[in-house]
Amino acid sequence: MFFGLYANPAAAIAFADGLRVPQEELVAAANHFENFYEEVFVEFSRYGEITDMMVADNIGEHMLGNVYIKYSTEEHAEGCFRDKNGKYYNNNQIRIEYSPVTDFREAKCRQNHEGKCDRGGYCNFIHPKHISKKIKTQLTEQMYVEYPEYEKARALRREQGISDNNSDFSDRPAIKERDDDRRRDKRRRSPERYHHRSPPRNAPRNDRERDRYRERGDRERRDRYPDRPDRGRRDDRRDHDYDRRGQRGNQDEPREYERDFRNEPDRRDQR
In this structure, what are the phi and psi dihedrals at residue 260, rounded to the nearest 5 degrees? Predict the structure, then answer.
């Protein structure tokens, strides 16, 4: 981890802070960052094989301009530390520190990846600056062409089943099976998985309790509206509403609710 190695342009800092920036300044800031990325990648690839590199877009004081470089081995990282720590780049002293994070995906902000981080540029998780995949691919291929020993070391790691993220290739089927099980459990929403969630008040837990719950509700509705037969069971109410829409029965005959309405005295005359 290189503290403050990248000097962010003012337009980049303002844009990360959520301010409006003219399009011309954003394009100039993007070109400035791409040139910096290429220069640093080529320079630091002399010490070993670079498997990943990213620059923080955060504007917090402790993360502004930080550059994170991951080497394939600890020996390569140690050689870079001994040779570059304390030297100067762009009139700024280089300060290097080992990072305990071996997988950069764990340090990135997931909410920022989804486009909904509330903290913005002041988040404590890394908001990586965007670099096109084409540039990264070109730099990586150029590195393997200039240093063939890196290509041989990568091929050897793959034969041994070791990936660039320090994870075993043989674990991928197990990881996929684990993810499938999680998605399946989420769809089922089994009580064993969600036992910590308390059920709603008076919620039925099985078919017998559900029937009792419905019968109790039907009795309460009948007691509350003794003169309204349509306030009985919910099945009777549904049939009654179905008849009211005129989709069943003879539409020429007056329906029960129409007869009741005709026989009911006008309440305005009683006032």
Answer: -65, -35
Domain spans, the chain: 10-166, 168-196, 198-249
Query: Could you give the dihedral angle defined by the CA atoms of residues 21, 26, 28 and 34, in that order, rounded to the nearest 10 degrees?
Result: 150
Virtual CA dihedral for 58, 61, 64, 70, nearest 10 degrees? -90
Judged by phi (left if over 0) then psi (alpha if -120 to 50, else beta), residue 230 lies in alpha
Q: pTM for this structure? A: 0.60
pLDDT digits (tens, 9 = 90+) for 157-193: 888 877 665 444 444 555 566 667 767 766 665 554 4
Rounded CA-CA distance 81/2 in Å is: 10
Helix, strand, coil percent values for the chain (each to nearest 5):
50, 10, 40
Average pLDDT, the chain: 76
CATH of domain 10-166: 3.30.70.330
Instruction: Give the burial string for 31-60 (b: 16+ CB within 10 Å, else e).
Output: ebbeebbbebbeebbebbbbbebbbbbbbe
Q: Which residue has the tokens 């719950």?
A: 213
Q: Do residues 67 and 131 lie in contact, with contact meaning Cβ atoms separated by under 8 Å?
A: no
Q: d(Cα 72, Cα 89) in Å, to the nearest integer?
A: 24
Return the amino acid letter for 218: D
Tokens of 219: 């009795």
